[in-house]
Amino acid sequence: MHLSDSLNAAQIIDKKTGQVYFFDDLGCAVLWLRTNAVLNKDDAVIYVTDAIDSAWLQHNKAVYAFPYVTPMSFSVSAFSDKNKVGTDKTILTFDQAVDEIVKIHEQRKHAGGQGHHMATDVGKTEDVTQ
User: In angstroms, rounded to a whole number, what is the distance separating the alpha carbons of residues 85 and 128?
Assistant: First the structure.
């Protein structure tokens, strides 16, 4: 799959089936996982890309920061190290990043917007983190 922005991408892997899902923006991945009836979050392995060098990182080892320009305007980017985060940005934990994404999603819904966008080519592909 071609990602429009490899600096803000996310990947979710279903541990049970090996199905791999790619997203252009962490926000899309977070919202998709929250609303997906097929994949329980406990059965998911989540990777994000470093917003500086596109290296794939396990989501629980990344540092998150806000606000950044991202493909779907969820404004949260991931980094391998807090020293990569701009001095004018707010560092977030993963849970805080999720809260920020959900807040933006809710604001869009109340404003009459779509809320979020999912990558168009989501599906079974090769796990790029290996």
Answer: 25
Q: Tens of pLDDT along 90-101?
A: 999 999 999 999
SS3 of 66, please? Answer: strand
Strand partners, 13: 20, 45
The answer to whether 67 touches 20, Cβ cutoff 8 Å, is no
Residue 86 neighbours by CB under 8 Å, 6+ apart: 65
User: Number of helices (H) and strands (E), helices first, in the chain?
Assistant: 2, 7
Crossing angle of helices 94-110/26-35, nearest 10°? 80
Residue positions counted in the chain: 130
Q: How far apart are CA 130 and CA 36, in angstroms?
A: 25
Query: DSSP labels for 17-53?
Result: T--EEEESSHHHHHHHHHH-SSS-GGGEEEEEEBTTT
Q: pLDDT tens digits, residue range 63-89?
A: 999 999 998 989 999 999 999 999 999
